[in-house]
Amino acid sequence: MTTVAAYAAPSAKAPLERTTIERREVGEFDVLIDIKFAGICHSDIHQAREGWGEAIFPMVPGHEIAGVVEAVGSGVTKFTVGDHVGVGCLVDSCRECENCVAGLEQYCLKGGVGTYNALDKNGEPTYGGYSEKIVVDENYTVRIPDGLSLDVAAPLLCAGITTYSPLKHWNAGPGKKVAILGMGGLGHMGVKIASALGAEVTVLSQSLRKKEDGLKLGASSYYATSDEATFKELRGTFDIILSTVSAPLNLDAYLSLLKTDGAFVNVGAPEEPVALNLFSVIGGRKTLAGSGIGGIQETQEMLDFCAEHGLGSEIELISAEQINEAYERVLASDVRYRFVIDTATI
Fold first, then answer.
1. Which helix (H) or strand (E) holds 6?
2. How far is CA 226 from CA 183, 231, 250, 253, in A?
3. Spatial distance between the Cα atoms of 64 and 115, rounded to a whole number of angstroms
4. Residue 66: which of 165, 139, 133 has the closest Cα?
5. Are 31 and 79 in contact (CB under 8 A)?
6. Are 105 and 46 in contact (CB under 8 A)?
7. Looking at residue 144, what is its pLDDT?
8. What is the spatial distance between Cα 93 and Cα 88, in angstroms, rounded to a whole number?
9. Contact by Cβ (8 Å): 160, 64
10. Largest CA distance in the chain
11. What is the reported pLDDT for 1?
12. What are phi and psi of 111, to 5 degrees?
């Protein structure tokens, strides 16, 4: 076991504080990663504050991890010391079910092992990226291409793959009209990726405050959802609406913006249930769907795509002692567009 410094929530809703945690010894197929940067995802806040249900404490959040390989187990073939690597939301899965075999480890039928707030196969709690180092099986580690600096690459391990996977699955590309709902940590990557895929991109945001940024990042138009005229003007417009919003929405209003056979895909996960009139999907043969991160192979594909197109996250680099302040700013939508912790400050 190795003792490393970390920032943890000692209990639900408690401020995060500096502590130490134990990392397992490097096993035969393990990679020891010296974490350089860790992104702050809204889901970190949901879990640290038990917004999604009972959680495991103390909790070390963080599933947007970028670092450098410090050591490898004797059986490791994919990585060597010095490689730039990343870890996302999963650190293990059953590897045997239909979904795992198909490269859909995020939908493991026996339940994948989350990077934090989960129990590993030995029943030990997992701890995430707000820490100095982490030990991960090589099969759940991805390579960060040379074209991406580690700080802007870290958020791609969640925000990047969470938007890339559904955009690819629902065939965003040339000739398709895609709306990105919400212009935050996920949304700004959705705009970049949908645009790079060749789609015509519109941002739907509560206000026009971030319009200039949206257009700069690849959107061709930008509308305020607080303006009722938006819903009249855009009725029947989009092939895909990707919702990155983690607050309850008027789904019927947004479904009216889809074309026939259009899809409204949720990647934001509100803590409360939402209401739906089924006529909103029956009329127009519309799809109301959800999507969760991506498999390991697809995550690597996404990183390679982002490197090829020069897509990194727009970040605000912070020190570890600013984590609690950053949480409050995320809740206030006061970040453009992803906080990233410089883990050297832990």
1. strand 2-8
2. 14, 10, 12, 12
3. 9
4. 133
5. yes
6. no
7. 98
8. 13
9. no
10. 62
11. 86
12. 95, 115
Burial 99-127 (b: 16+ CB within 10 A, else e): bbeeebbbbbeeebbbbbbbeeeeeeebb
Instruction: Please list the alpha-helical segments (H only) found in 132-210.
Output: 150-153, 159-169, 185-196
Where do the H-state alpha helices sit in 234-310?
251-255, 279-282, 296-309
| pLDDT digits 0-9 by tens, 132-157 | 999 999 999 999 999 999 999 999 99
Q: Which residues of the chain have pLDDT under 70?
A: none
- Tokens standing for 170? 């629902």
Is residue 49 packed enough to be buried (19+ CB in 10 Å), middle (13-18) or exposed (0-12)? middle
Q: Which two tokens stand for residue 250?
A: 């008027």
Identify which of 298, 295, 305 has the alpha carbon closest to the alpha carbon of residue 148: 305
- Which is it for the CA torsion 171, 154, 306, 199, positive or negative? positive
Sign of the dihedral defined by the CA atoms of residues 84, 86, 91, 92, in that order = negative
| Residue at token pair 């919400």 | 182
pLDDT confidence of residue 269: 86
Query: Helix H segments across 22-142?
Result: 42-48, 98-101
d(CA 59, CA 119): 12
Beta bridge pairs of residue 338 = 315
Give the C-alpha separation, 193 to 244, whole Å: 14
